[in-house]
Amino acid sequence: MPELQRLRTDHAPALLAFEQENRAYFAASIPDRGDAYFTDFAARLTDLLTEQAAGLCHFHLLVAPDGEVLGRFNLVDVADGSADLGFRMAEKATRRGLATATVLHLCTLAATEYGLTTLRASAALDNTASRTVLTRAGFVPTGEEVQLSERPGLCYERSTAPRA
Q1: What is the per-residue pLDDT across 15-48, written as a single tens digit (0 to 9) for each?
Q2: Tens of pLDDT along 106-147?
Q3: Which end of the chain is more exposed for a tag (fewer CB within 10 A), N or C?
Q4: From the centroid of its chain, how far is CA 113?
Q5: What contacts 101, CB < 8 A, 6 or more positions away?
Q6: Can you tell me the distance from the alpha carbon of 63 to that of 68, in angstroms, rounded to the nearest whole number?
Q7: Beta sheet of 140-148, edge-to-edge order
Q8: CA gap 156, 139 in Å, rounded
Q9: Whole-angstrom distance, CA of residue 124 vs CA of residue 9
């Protein structure tokens, strides 16, 4: 069973492999990270871990028993009891309910471990998979429209209070 783990330095090789192996898949539905992301991967990871240590963000990986990264689940821009959720799943890990289950688990962690009361997210209108995960995890559209790399999208929000 995959496990949600807080991002650590020793995740670097598996995380880089995840990003490289799924680059084309991700670029079909979200903006590509660009070549510089891969060239400067080690420095970027150090920066992320510094932000996490400061409590500004909480980065997580969904890790298979063999150490392979199956997904990233991040809480960023932590402030005033809220944060923005972002996630991406490896292509081979989709359509199994893992993303929804992990987002639900992260909502619990957000409340119990990080003291967050509200999570926000956004997804492009044509990113049906992400919008479905958000809806199944209890996020509701706020009515606010956004542009996500030139693509129209919607904003979502969810309280971290337990769902009835």
Answers
A1: 999 999 999 998 887 777 888 889 999 999 999 9
A2: 999 999 999 999 999 999 998 999 999 999 999 999 999 998
A3: C
A4: 17
A5: none
A6: 6
A7: 3-6, 58-63, 69-79, 82-89, 118-124, 151-159, 140-148
A8: 6
A9: 31
